[in-house]
């Protein structure tokens, strides 16, 4: 349960909307607290984590500075929540960014045992939905139309854990309503980057490999779509079956050919330089990252507008050829399911 909560109204200054700051914390009954807690925390579905950063010193990141003050002294909660709201108001540089309520919430860890970690939540609501209120009048009922916040999904959220302070804390962040501005919440307001952890390395290794197989490999080697699909399937199976990633082992089992291995290593180096990231060559594999990234590994061969072939297993069960009728694929199988 959270122990402190305050709400401010943050408009879009570009659209001449105002900033309204609350002077008191909300006082809520236990049922409302439980309902709001489920609403606030329900959108964090991934293990992907972030950290604050600054182009100079971390203390110059406004949100990092404010949450640090609150973690040090909860009596500063209301004052620093106002500073966070002012910073969010100033961050709007796009007229498409919607105004809304900004909730600042303090989650006090009341567990017994283990290391306790308090959290600060920053949540913004933007979308409004219409609803009907029904109430009795005499011997009938009346309807009244109104608008409010749907409790199905928060629009924007950040949850800051009180650990790893020296490197910018650990954050979970979501943006479910980008309003045509993908930088407003992550970059302009929070100024966060993905953490350099097992999830990050698993995700990045898979994506750089996918880019290599689908873009670079066909340029350097004579490979069919079926061969590319086979490479993608082998890579996903490797990550599912192993607990730890080792580049040499991966290259030997999945890529196999020494010329392809050399080509991939060169591609990975260029990718790291271009994207300014460093992907480790050995790291524990994150099953959550594999599960999320797998959706991008679609081993599909599209044949004109007539057929799609989905390849899930043994490449040897698929043959390709050409006769007087045209190009064809031949599929072998044991039984129909």
Describe this entry's structure for a reader.
The protein is globular, with a radius of gyration of 26 Å. It contains nine helices and 16 strands. With 337 residues, the chain is α+β, with helices and mostly antiparallel strands. The mean pLDDT is 89. It has helices at residues 30-41, 62-72, 77-91, 184-190, 198-220, 225-241, 247-255, 258-275, 287-293; strands at 2-10, 19-20, 50-52, 100-107, 119-125, 129-137, 140-148, 156-161, 170-175, 192-194, 244-246, 282-284, 300-303, 307-310, 318-323, 326-331. The strands form six sheets. It has a six-stranded antiparallel β-sheet with strand order 2-1-4-5-8-9. A two-stranded antiparallel ribbon has the order 3-10. Strands 6-7 form a two-stranded antiparallel sheet. Strand 8 and strand 9 form a beta hairpin.
Query: What kind of oligomer do you see?
Result: single chain
Order of helices and strands: EEHEHHEEEEEEHEHHEHHEHEEEE
Helix content: 25-40%
Strands side by side in the biggest sheet: 2-1-4-5-8-9
The best one-word shape is globular
Q: End-to-end distance, in Å?
A: 49 Å
Q: What is the β-strand count?
A: 16
The biggest beta sheet is recorded as: 6 strands, antiparallel
User: Mean pLDDT, rounded to whole units?
Assistant: 89
SS-based class: alpha+beta
Strand content: 25-35%
What does the radius of gyration come to?
Answer: 26 Å
Number of helices: 9
Low-confidence stretches: none
